[in-house]
Amino acid sequence: MSAPCRTVAAVWEVEVRSKVPGAAQDTAPSVLVELERDRTTVRELIRRAVEEQLRELRADATRCRRTLDRQYLTRDEIERQAASGVVRSSAVPDAEREVTRAQRAYERHAFAVFAGGRQAGGLDEEIVLRLGEPVLFLRLTPLVGG
């Protein structure tokens, strides 16, 4: 992959990396997100990243579903699926539904966004991107017993 963040003809390209601690596979791929300027909201960055991740993963629908679930399912969704004993997944993920789910997961602290040298706050917070610095979506995992 090229530089984590660069400008190309008045378009900013920023690398978004996703990490799930302890996961060796089924992590969302690093993607390049194109933006019009060096600032955006957390909400818009999540939208653009999820759309790019979907494009990257569409070749393998099963892997795509597993990967998106691992990164963006909330604790409540995981517990509901575990209680029912059945994990349901659609064959082809719907982009708008996945974006909404990822934004909801962010609001529920299922993952954090790190950009511009710090952890981002709310969905509508504006973040400043830095040349050469990727953005990280870090899956948060609850401690056992706590």
What features would you describe in this structure?
The chain is α+β, with helices and mostly antiparallel strands. The chain has one domain. It is 35% helix and 25% strand. The longest helix has 16 residues. The protein is globular.
> Whole-number average pLDDT?
82
Q: What's the total count of β strands?
A: 8
User: What is the end-to-end distance?
Assistant: 38 Å
The coarse silhouette is globular
How many individual domains?
1
Structural class: alpha+beta
Instruction: Determine the fraction of residues in helical runs and give it as a percent range.
Output: 25-40%
Task: Write a brief structural summary.
The protein is of the alpha+beta class.
Characteristic terms for this protein:
25% strand, 8 strands, single chain, alpha+beta, coiled coil, 146 residues
How is the topology of this model organized?
Layout: E1 5-8, E2 11-19, E3 31-35, E4 39-41, H1 42-57, H2 61-72, H3 75-84, H4 95-107, E5 111-115, E6 118-119, E7 126-128, E8 135-139
Parallel strand pairs: 2-8
Antiparallel strand pairs: 1-2, 2-3, 4-7, 5-6, 5-8
